[in-house]
Automatic annotation (TrEMBL):
It comes from Collichthys lucidus. Gene3D superfamilies: Ribonuclease Z/Hydroxyacylglutathione hydrolase-like. Pfam families: Lactamase_B. This is Metallo-beta-lactamase domain-containing protein 2. Residues 29-227 form the Metallo-beta-lactamase domain. InterPro entries: Metallo-B-lactamas, NDM-1-like, RibonucZ/Hydroxyglut_hydro.
Amino acid sequence: MSAADWYAHKSLGDGLFWIQERFYQSDNRANIWLLRGSHQDVVIDTGLGLRSLPEYIDVKGLLGKDPQRKNPLLAIATHAHFDHSGGLHQFQQVGVHSAEVDALANGDNFETVTWLSDREIAEAPSPGWRARHYKVKAVQPTHILQEGDVINLGDRQLTVLHMPGHSRGSICLHDRDNKLLFSGDVVYDGSMIDWLPYSHVSDYISSCERLVGLVDSEQVDQVLPGHYNTFGAKRLHRIASAYISRAGTCPAKFSTFAWSTVAGAALWACNPRSAC
């Protein structure tokens, strides 16, 4: 299957594109965001990496034909999990938070929580492909990100907000001028996951408190999440507030512990070398 067939995209205007993997039919299918700038273009999250994302972007002409543009496309992972980081190795420039650099550089498929089944792939990307052979390929990040870093695209800037909880290196990218928040898996319009290896509930609560603060200070109008559909500030406030209220309760703590135990054992069994 060609890259042109594997992916699909939608233009949201103002140099922003929403890309998805058509044949990865799972709740784990991540949103891929392409944002054009006057001097630098950025891809936020890269999906599984089963077909070439740079090839798709090129074939579809999503970057245009500006002869003055010299900077290679920068791919940033909002966190290291496989559904967001699997295609990073296809890019010359790769950014991730410092807490998850080693996981990507070592191809640690335990920390990337690599978990893929044949039934999630509606059509095989290549003859004989099987999910059991899938691994996140090691990649050495060129951009090691920290809280407060600014990614300068020329006519717009993205500020790195370190928001751990879902994973230890989870980040949001905040376009303050346009009040856009690329939230990765820190928040999306669905059940938030805090029971994976390197998840941490108290960190997640603090991150959600920051999200509430962004809404209260009118710094966010639209959220472009790692999964599902986009949503606005009021919905962001409700989702983050609900997590804060729920996470500290005894039933929630017990459920998190139980799921964490099961998930850790399952991932260890599937990725024993990476877990060592």
